[in-house]
Every structure is written in structure tokens, then in C-alpha cells.
Amino acid sequence: MKAATAILTSALCLGFALPAAANRVFVSNEKGNDVTVLDSETLEVIGTYPVGARPRGITISPDGKELYVCASDDDLVRVFNPETMEETHTLPSGPDPELFVLHPSGNPLYIANEDDNLVTVVDTRTHKVLAEIPVGVEPEGMGVSPDGKVVINTSETTNMAHFINSETFEIFANVLVDSRPRFAQFNDAGNKLYVSSEIGGTVSVIDPETQQITKKISFEIPGVLPEAIQPVGVRVTKDGKKVFVALGPANRVAVINGETDEVEDYLLVGQRVWQMAFTPDEKYLFTTNGNSNDVSVIDVAANKVIKSVPVGQQPWGVVVAPN
Amino acid sequence: MKYLVLALCLVAGAAQAETGADPDWPCVQRKQPHLSLGQMWSGPEPDETVRELARTPEIAALADRLEQRRLPLEKAEAEVAEFAKTADNKQLTALMVAIFDRIDPHRAALIAGIARYGNKQVDLAKRIGDHRQKMEEMQKAEKPDFDALDAEEEQLDWDTRIFQDRQQALTYVCETPVILEQRVFALARAIAAGLK
């Protein structure tokens, strides 16, 4: 009996210990009109689910219960149950939603409308539009400060990062950056804002306090023509020490020291790499490679690409469930 | 007739809005005139010895075969794996160089072709506008020459049809450089997998 109990106990312990923090990874496939779901531990595809026309931006609520997808050609945001991948409802988004960011509290959602130069603010609980904020031409990148007080929008044609007060919905500062800004990302301390410029080929490091550019990071890769280096997605580790920048058709992700803002490494991933997402424990970083139709998995501690996983047609965005 | 012109304007308008004003590049994709080896290869940097090796008959013949799109990618990858069994890193790098030196010029020629395609569409759109203007003038004449008007209209219909067909084919035309990029990248991955 004792032995049986011991076996049972160890089996139980094993049972609880074995499934390490496996999370679901959601990849939007722009051309496939679907989302591929991966397991973050086995790195295998769990399934592929239709999500509407031309899915691009993708994010998940902090409690992991709602998955938001910009269905660009449907002109709305579709919301799914991440467990079942069934659509629960839609949110109004304005025309051609491309990218959005969720307030750290999970509400509201800030959506960039590329075609009509607006940022639409939507309440994720009431599903109502709270505000439409006029910004520059072709709004694209969206970021939010860790305290949720400042929302950043970048406009591709005006070449600016607009600082928006999240309470008054008013722009209080504009920072001119290099050509075609695509993405804005704060570090967790909130004292640095990284804005990538796709055509300019740089990442501007901005002090959010003074709204001044403190440094411009540029990239050089031996054997790669400069015009192929097109920075898009940016992700920063929680401790702020490592910054990853996806370099588009250079097919590389740059690893930057978050303290000195110097490039330390370039990792060869797949073709036309745009967006990235960490697992919650920051063991892995997933990248979407739009032309090779796969996702690369980067071992964050080792700065190493460990696997590429084929997904759907033209993967665009990626998010990892928080739980 | 009016509807046709309207449809044409809409098509042309949409095409412009989507692709910008550059007639040399009518595609949605960003124009990238040339690829660079470093975009797909992080293996050893090719030196003179490697470039020399790339021209040897064995590697050149293999590159010729692998480059062809009619050879399915899986078979090409299997051939690379077979070659990698006995090849050293210099030979593998040479194979990469040989493939790149074949696919990039091919792709550049395609891009020049797309520029010609784009320019032809611009010319055709202009010709359609000219036909329309001419027809308007002919209709205003005191005694319109209806035979000539019919002939003009027929020409206009043809040009419009060709324009629209080509516009529809544009999506596919613009995809072809991407298809080549995908192939050279996939082959690079297969070769890199064989590096010792």
C-alpha cells in the first residue's frame, strides 16, 4: 500500500511537473486568411483556423481569454476564443485595420486605420468606438507605454511617431523619424521607446520623457545590400537588456544590447521577417517570415535559431498566449 | 460605352492607388532590383578559390539542374543532401554561389520585364484615352461618319479588353520574382544544413 501510494504520489508529481509552461502561439497568415496555432514547447502545429479576410495584426487579452485579429479586408476586428478558435464577436475598427495595441489592462484597443489616417479606440467590453483620433498619413505602428498613459502611433508617409494621451485622446508630441516608420515598442521600464523605420533602415531610440531621439541604430550585414535591410518588428526583453529587430527582406533578426543600444548579432531566420513574439518566460522568440511561409524559433538566451516551422500562406503577425 | 470607360478608370485608379506612381514598378511588393547572397547565406564567405570551384563542371552542372523550377523543390533538396554527403564546406559554398549567380540575373531580367509590362499598360491607358477623345470629337461633327465611329469604338473595346486582362495578370506577374527568391532561399537552407 505504501509503495502504491509512493508510486501514485510520484506519478502525480511527475504529472504536474511534466507539462512545462506550454503556451499556444498564434500566427496570422495574411494570404491564407487563417491563423496557425503552435505549441510553444513541442513547436508543433496544433491546427489552422479560418479567421476572415487578410488577417494581419494579432493580439491577446492579458487574461488569455480573447484573441483579437485585424481582418483588414473585412474592415473589422474579429475576436476568437483562443481555446476553441471559435469567433465570439467582432469589434468595429474603421476601414483597413492593420495593426493595433491593447492597453496593458486589456481595455481599450487602439487600432491604426491605414486608409483614413485615424487611430480608432475601441472598448473591448462594450464593443463601442470610444474615439477616432486623426493622425498622420498612413498610420501603421502602434505602441503603448507600460503604465498605459501614452499611446504611440507611427505614420508611414508623414514619418512621425505621434504621442497620444490615452485619457484625452489628444496628440501632445510628434517626433520626426526616418522614412516609413512601421513599429513602436517601449521597454518595460518605460524609459526607452524604439521606433523602426522600414525605408530609412534605422531604429530610433526615443526618450519618452523629453520626446527626443537619443540614438539612431543602423544596421550593416556583410554580403547584404543596404536596401534589403528594412527594420519592422521590435521586441524588448522584460529586463530591457536585449532588443530584437526584424529586418524584413534581409532575412535577419538583429540582436541589440538594450543598455548600449549597439547591435551585437544578426540571426538568419526566414524570408521577409516582420513581426515577433516572446513566450511569457522569454525562453523563445517567434518570428513571422512572410515569403518563406514559416516561423523561426529563436532561443533567446543563446541568440540562436533552433527551428523553422512551416505555417500558412504569408505569415504576418504572431502572439503567444500568456497562460 | 460610358460604363466601360468608367470601369477602366476604376481599374486604372485602383492600380495606381495600390502601387504608387512608378510605371517601372506596378507591383504591390517592394521593388528589390537585386538579391544579395548574404540575404540567404550565413555560411563561409566565398573567396576566389570558392568562386573558381563554382565554375567546375560538376558543381556548375548541379547548379544548372537545381535552378530549374521544373525540378520539384523536394527533389532538389534531396540532390543537395546527396551532394553534401561527400562535399566539404568550400564545395558547398561554391554550390551556393553557383546557384545564386544563376537565379539572381534571371530574377533581374524578370524585373526588367515587369517594368516593360508596367510601361506598356501606361501607354495602353493613354491610347484608350486618345480613342475616347477622338470618338467624342467625331460625334460632335455635323455629319458624323458612323462607319469610322464604329471602327474607332471597336478598337477602343479591344484595347480596353487587353488592358483589363493584363491588369488581372499583374498579380501573377508580380509574384514571379518572389517565387525565385523562395527557391534560392530554400536551396540555401538545404545547402547550409549540410555544412560541417
From TrEMBL, chain A:
<protein>
    <submittedName>
        <fullName>Membrane protein</fullName>
    </submittedName>
</protein>
<dbReference type="InterPro" id="IPR015943">
    <property type="entry name" value="WD40/YVTN_repeat-like_dom_sf"/>
</dbReference>
<dbReference type="InterPro" id="IPR011964">
    <property type="entry name" value="YVTN_b-propeller_repeat"/>
</dbReference>
<dbReference type="Pfam" id="PF10282">
    <property type="entry name" value="Lactonase"/>
</dbReference>
<keyword id="KW-0732">Signal</keyword>
<dbReference type="InterPro" id="IPR011045">
    <property type="entry name" value="N2O_reductase_N"/>
</dbReference>
<dbReference type="InterPro" id="IPR051200">
    <property type="entry name" value="Host-pathogen_enzymatic-act"/>
</dbReference>
<feature type="signal peptide">
    <location>
        <begin position="1"/>
        <end position="22"/>
    </location>
</feature>
<dbReference type="InterPro" id="IPR019405">
    <property type="entry name" value="Lactonase_7-beta_prop"/>
</dbReference>
<dbReference type="InterPro" id="IPR022456">
    <property type="entry name" value="PQQ_b_propeller"/>
</dbReference>
UniProtKB/TrEMBL annotation, chain B:
<protein>
    <recommendedName>
        <fullName>DUF1311 domain-containing protein</fullName>
    </recommendedName>
</protein>
<keyword id="KW-0732">Signal</keyword>
<feature type="signal peptide">
    <location>
        <begin position="1"/>
        <end position="17"/>
    </location>
</feature>
